[in-house]
């Protein structure tokens, strides 16, 4: 005779224990937190493998697991990738690893496991991304912690004592900038309210000169838009082999046709110690029948670049008169926004640039 209880269905299984969200855990009282921590520490497959410590310990263990293997910082939830073995890298570090490999003519590898990294097969992990959203985020200026990233944005803009502000007398020419906590003492000691009218006038004239200098790009844009003809191209750049060895490495575009002539854009990558520079040059492949006054500038094409890359190349317009004796524009350093812009450019799966050309008769 069976001793089983007839009221219990042997096919039914008890519901699986669910881990609680960190935001839910943070709202529990101390006894509940200790109970949850004990349960997590005794559970199979726990995160980090250490014991005890409650929510703060859990967060610390998650932090240590989720940091970028390069910079050791926790990446943004939308801004990380993983290698084939699951090691995490923030986007900036991933592009740096890819670009440095190109500069050194080596293979890009994960710094942790040495597995091969390729730009086109980098993916995100859904569980890691959701976990990153659950972790609190710290203010970079005062280290206050926030569970909601929107709260951090408001804090940085209106509340943080470390946010950078201008002197309240900046309209009189004071150039002081500093943390908000120091602004009150500076404002009380600022000498600009005590200056004589002539001194303030001279200062304001210098401010006006700086504003006119800042308007130069707009004036240049007005000049090029008044050109007789305008052409633009999205160019795919390729490495050319004749610059191998000790010479600078060179990228060259396909030949394009503009203003009834044929042109090529060339970039030269040069490394001097730790400094890497990129210069650009527009070349005329054919011999023109008449002199051509051409303005040109280079930018990132929106259709193929990330949002971060849109402003990696600063707008700068170059002018050259092309004729039978001057078929090459002067080589000019590409106006990149910084080292990270350089990494993002050369970490692209296919390096592409947008070239604008303006012909003046």
Q: What does this protein look like?
A:
- The structure is a single chain.
- This protein is α+β, with helices and mostly antiparallel strands and 361 residues long.
- 30% of the residues lie in helices and 23% in strands.
- The strands form four sheets. Strands 7, 8, 9, 10, 11, 12, 13, 14 and 15 form a nine-stranded antiparallel sheet that branches. A two-stranded antiparallel ribbon has the order 1-2. Strands 3-4 form a two-stranded antiparallel ribbon.
- Mean pLDDT is 77; it is low at 1-52.
Write the layout of secondary structure elements.
Elements: H1 22-25, H2 30-42, H3 54-66, E1 80-82, E2 88-90, H4 91-104, H5 126-134, E3 137-138, E4 145-146, H6 149-159, E5 164-166, E6 177-179, H7 180-189, H8 197-214, H9 216-225, E7 229-240, E8 249-253, E9 256-258, E10 261-272, E11 275-284, E12 292-299, E13 318-322, E14 332-333, H10 339-346, E15 352-360
Antiparallel strand pairs: 1-2, 3-4, 5-6, 7-8, 7-15, 8-10, 9-10, 10-11, 11-14, 12-13, 12-15
Helix pairs in contact: 4-10
